[in-house]
# Entry
Amino acid sequence: MGLKDFIDKIKERRKLKIEEGSWVKCEKCKTLLYIEDLIKNLKICPHCGYTFRMSAKERVDLLLDKVYTYDLFPKIVPVDPLNFKDTKRYKDRLKESKEKTGLNDAIIIANGLIYDREVVIAAMDFEFMGGSMGSVVGAKFVRGVEYSIQKKIPFISVAASGGARMQESILSLMQMAKTAIAIDRLNKNGILYISILTDPTMGGVSASFAFLGDIIIAEPESLIGFAGPRVIEQTIRQQLPEGFQRAEFLLEKGQIDMVVDRKNLKKTVYTLIKHTHG
Amino acid sequence: MDLEKEIANLSDQIELLRERIKRGEHKLINELVELRKKFKKLSKKRMETLSAWDRVQIARHSKRPHTIDYIKNIFTDFIELHGDRRFGDDKAIIAGFANFEGKPVCVIGHEKGRDTKEKIERNFGMPHPEGYRKAIRVMKLAEKFRRPVFTFIDTPGAYPGIGAEERGQSQAIAESLMVMGSLRTPIIATVIGEGGSGGALALGVADRILMLENAIYSVISPEGCAAILYKSAEAAPIAAENLKITAKDLLELGVIDCIVREPLGGAHLQPKKMYRLLKRALRNTLKQIENIDPDTLVELRQRKFYSMGRFAER
Ligand SMILES: [Zn+2]
# Structure
């Protein structure tokens, strides 16, 4: 699938939600943007380069030339193991997120080709409860890893998450160990793992599979870290420096391999696959 | 609390009876047995009625035994190792070699510190990346020399600070999870106080996970959850309840393997008894896993964590 197809696909999906001729305001430079222009530019502000968030399916479209399936494990669905309720019931939050995104949970495990190379992509969706990792995200991630081991094809994750899913409490914490163990299994089987960090990649996702990539790529300006900036500010009682916890900051501190924009992401991933697999 | 008073009374009566029996009044033995039964029943009732929030207070009690105390009282010949060989030495985590009942082992644990000065030195038990990297180093030493690893979990969480982020807090925790998940030597983790989120789990990927009766283990502190989900600091006790953070909850959820009983009212009231109880639990646990060959051990550990979580498959 070329860039044009990708844009068409996004447009098609957008049509369901946004009327033709809608305008959105860029969150960074506050310029009013014509939605068509924004989509044509891969959801990057043409004025200031601000990257708008992408859905999990848009991620898959961006990376794959041919999609075999958007989700290998659609039958794995969330339950409410603790019967959790805060200001809302967890069950209701799940239902709302499902209606909003059309997804069962915050991750899809896609499979398809980048040019001629078959890969597995675990793509997270921030719109589904902030991309939080609960039992389903962990379970599907691990199944995806096992699938890529079985087929001996590279595994790529695209993180977009505020962290662990509080509504599943300790069970969500355990998904950190579970996914980290899955990456150990990839390593032992000699399978390439590319971790792509997008805005935001925080907490339990950041401190598990996302930072265990053979190669770690971040999208420009993405917020990436363990603790949230507000928590840090409250703890140290001082303002954080400009650009703190942004992708470029992490590159400078030696925490990631590269910052790559959307236009070059697929090409970069493909190059890395060629260097490591076959 | 009336129940509390009743229990204290009973405890005194039992003590008196025992003295008298010791002095030769053997006829009182039946009475003692009866009182003990009643005592047990009431204490059990009392412990069952403790709310999750009550346990949070016990888990954080200022006199509660810390890692350093368990090392001193359960292990011998402890020799502490320092530094991550990259940046510094994090005193929020203690690690080193020791003997456990004559067997050479490795010990790693969070340490909160006791007095104000020590608390500051140890950053209240909140590690920086260096702490986890030191832990990883010692785990790898344990693997090299085939020493079982005992970890003790007691932290509010990994430190949220500028330096911690700059030096890769996420990476350090993630690596620790992966290293523990594949370490070719037995690992026994014990949650002794506060198991705060990823910073706790980073020492918690083990073959057997024990938890003291009044310890807590959670993805987020009740206060943090209250602020984020309930939008109110006063909701912390409710959050504590709903988050299911007690040993009993975690046993039911299949996250821990065993609850270690605490002396009545909490470990801080009778620390010596606590050391005995935990030592016995660790001995029994070690027996279960010390002779499993490394391949099988790692496979079982990985399967254990692979099976964690609850979802439906349509
Ligand atoms: Zn802009």
About this structure: Residues A 26, 28-29, 31, 45, 47-48, 50 surround zinc ion (CB under 6 Å).
